Amino acid sequence: DVKVTQSSRYLVKRTGEKVFLECVQDMDHENMFWYRQDPGLGLRLIYFSYDVKMKEKGDIPEGYSVSREKKERFSLILESASTNQTSMYLCASSSPAGTGFNNEQFFGPGTRLTVL
Amino acid sequence: QKEVEQNSGPLSVPEGAIASLNCTYSDRGSQSFFWYRQYSGKSPELIMFIYSNGDKEDGRFTAQLNKASQYVSLLIRDSQPSDSATYLCSAGGTSYGKLTFGQGTILTVHP
């Protein structure tokens, strides 16, 4: 059974704290993604990675950074948490795109982060 | 900015009816289309994908793609209360497997 796991389901942090969200996949996928999900806004891509140590900005990277030191692990870092980063964070992974098509993304259970 | 737009919900249908969910996309380079279902408090799970123009059927679900009109739809036949969820439409090219998601449509199937 394929699996993407995230380190916490719920997290409460204070403004200004540095926050680490961890994601691990056991499918040997090259691609990994971090999204945030807010009501009415759908899933918005923060960062993604297509290989170890490789990372690319998504649509809303401001205030975030990422780290991928091992293929199975992709970390999202909030350098200085702010209240507007209160959200549901979802990690996903996929195998490389084929010729002319993408492959399915598998999602982790999500981390609901509250910044006070 | 590549966009995926879904018909605004919420959508409410009676049990046994056909639910129709629609989606348009702006990037003509998109080649892969995915419908995800997301139950409240849960993460998205894939229910259908489609790459070619036309219809694709899987049980009670049918995905339809019209690349000329940049339009994707999902039909759910014989809707059940267990189908009540948010449905996310997504589109992707081949750039590192990235997908762009719509804002989601909330479907409620009432007995």
Can you describe this structure?
The complex is a heterodimer of chains A (116) and B (111). Chain A is mainly β and 116 residues long. In chain A, 0% of the residues lie in helices and 55% in strands. Chain A has no helices and eleven strands. Chain A has strands at residues 4-6, 10-13, 19-25, 31-38, 42-51, 54-57, 64-70, 73-78, 87-94, 106-107, 111-115. Chain B is mostly beta strands and 111 residues long. In chain B, strands 2, 4, 5, 9, 10 and 11 form a six-stranded mixed β-sheet that branches. Chain B has a five-stranded antiparallel β-sheet with strand order 1-3-8-7-6, with no helix packed on it. In chain B, a hairpin with a 4-residue loop joins strand 7 (61-66) and strand 8 (71-76).
The SS-based structural class of chain B is mainly beta
Terminal CA distance of chain A reads 37 Å
* Shape by Cα distribution of chain B: globular
Number of beta strands of chain B: 11
State the helical fraction of chain B: under 10%
List keywords for this structure.
A: 116 residues; four-stranded antiparallel sheet; 0% helix; globular; B: 111 residues; mainly beta; 54% strand
Short overview:
The complex is a heterodimer of chains A (116) and B (111). Chain A is mostly beta strands and 116 residues long. Chain A is 0% helix and 55% strand.
SSE inventory with pairings:
The complex is a heterodimer of chains A (116) and B (111).
Chain A: E1 4-6, E2 10-13, E3 19-25, E4 31-38, E5 42-51, E6 54-57, E7 64-70, E8 73-78, E9 87-94, E10 106-107, E11 111-115
Parallel strand pairs in A: 2-11
Antiparallel strand pairs in A: 1-3, 3-8, 4-5, 4-9, 5-6, 7-8, 9-10, 9-11
Chain B: E1 4-6, E2 11-14, E3 19-25, E4 32-38, E5 45-50, E6 54-58, E7 61-66, E8 71-76, E9 85-92, E10 100-101, E11 105-110
Parallel strand pairs in B: 2-11
Antiparallel strand pairs in B: 1-3, 3-8, 4-5, 4-9, 6-7, 7-8, 9-10, 9-11
